[in-house]
Amino acid sequence: MTTILLLFVLGIVLLALDLFLPGIILSACGTLAMLAGTAQAFALYGVGGGLLAFVTGAVLLTVAMYIEYGLLPKTRFGKKFFLHAEVQGTSQAPAAETAALTGREGIALTPLMPVFNILDAVIAVFNTVKAIPESLGPPPDPTKLVSAIVEMTKKVSKLLIVGVFVLVLAAIIFSFFSVWLRALLAGAPVSMFNLLAMRLRQVPYSVMVDARIRATKAGIKLSIDEIEAQYLAGGNVLACVHALIAAQKAGIALDWQRACAIDLATKGSGKSVEEAVRTSVDPKVIDCPNPESGRTTIDGVAKDGIQVKVKARVTVRTHLDRFVGGAKEETIIARVGEGIVSTIGSSESYKVVLESPDSISKTVLARGLDVGSAFEILSIDIADVDVGENVGAKLQEAQAEANKSIAQAQAEIRRAAAVAVEQEMKARVQEMQAKVVEAQAQVPLAMAEAFRSGRLGVMDYFRMENVQADTAMRSSIAHPEGKK
């Protein structure tokens, strides 16, 4: 309704301004504006609303014409713009006087129409060019050229203001008219005021209008303000509209606010709201593990120590209600991998896994791994199962090697302790021997003291010598080679 009123007011204003600018340019623009308002009324409110707008416009036009041509000429201000005296004469001179009038100037009693002003300016330019060779002579006479230039300047300057105004108005109208008309014909009208406001806010109004047209054609009611708000927030309005249309066709509950939230949440992540809706309609298959991570299988070890290598494929569907803030594909892959490793580790033997690979998928699905994620896990399919290394045997071998190293280390500790004890004993032997030598060295001193004190006689001394000699003889007989 606001756009229709603005178009009617614009038409009346342009028709009123035609009084000050003779010609048909403003009148034509005003008429087009009122016709556009009437057409938009037909498009928005049907035949009844269109007829009402047409009658209203006709009434406004009649009132404006009556004020302009009935009341205004009677006022002091309006008398300056209307001719009250009758003009005597004809528009065409008699044939006999045509030759005499050729080349002469005439003064119009009323302002010329803009078309004739343009022709007058063109003639002035032509006369200026024509006066150039005449001013060069012979004899030289620059007065004609100067007067022609002055006359050309006067006539051309009259058109500059009008020309600039017309050009600006035409540029504004033609820059928005095609977009406005396209939206109007598509049943998704957008007012000129909104288009101008979006242009001033540096918003691509053509893209906004295209998004609204697509939504309207799909039966989705969206205002231009909602679309513009999503663009100013940094979203992709066309992607949101496409996702909304796809969700509607697929029977998925998705409103504009939710689509905008998903679009902003996936910004910069390589995902999009269109992909989310597409995955919700057509489930997506995720390889587990992700080949881009450099691993091709998920490895687990059964209780018998045999390694089992598994490659799985997870079929997921987007859960739009949990897409914003929910865990993404990486979390699903990690959870599924954890469930596979746990299932293999709880198996008594690797043969159990090979006999029934579906036990892995059943166990993993029963754990509810999609809780808090943006996806709903539909199925987990085991694509490949291989037997790997005997990890248990390798671990036992490694344990034996470790025990051997420990035993060798302990034996070395004991050997080092024994060597230390041996060296200590040798040191103690040397110490005892030193004490013996010391004690033996005390014997002569004690004997000398005994001689001096009279406790030892000469015969006692010789008996002791005989005993020592007898002992030495018996030792030499017992060890003839001098071995002890």
Walkthrough of the structure:
Helix content is 65%, strand content 8%. The chain is α+β, with helices and mostly antiparallel strands. The protein is elongated, with a radius of gyration of 58 Å. The protein contains 16 helices and 4 strands. Helix 1 packs across helix 2 (25-71), helix 7 runs parallel beside helix 9 (237-250) and helix 9 packs across helix 10.
Secondary structure: elements and pairs:
Layout (H helix, E strand, L loop, with lengths): L1 H16 L7 H47 L26 H4 L12 H23 L6 H43 L6 H9 L4 H13 L6 H9 L4 H14 L5 H10 L7 H9 L2 E5 L9 E4 L4 E13 L10 H17 L4 H6 L2 H9 L8 E16 H63 L4 H21 L6
Instruction: Tell me, briefly, the overall form.
Output: elongated
Total strands: 4
Helix tally? 16
- Compute the separation of the termini in Å: 137 Å
Approximate strand percentage: 5-15%
Question: Helix and strand string, N-terminal first?
Answer: HHHHHHHHHHHEEEHHHEHH
Helical amount among residues, as a percent range? Answer: 55-70%
Q: Could you tell me the mean pLDDT?
A: 78
For the sheet with most strands, the description reads: 4 strands, antiparallel
Q: Over all CA atoms, what is the radius of gyration?
A: 58 Å
Name the quaternary structure.
single chain
> Strand pairing plus helix content: what structural class?
alpha+beta
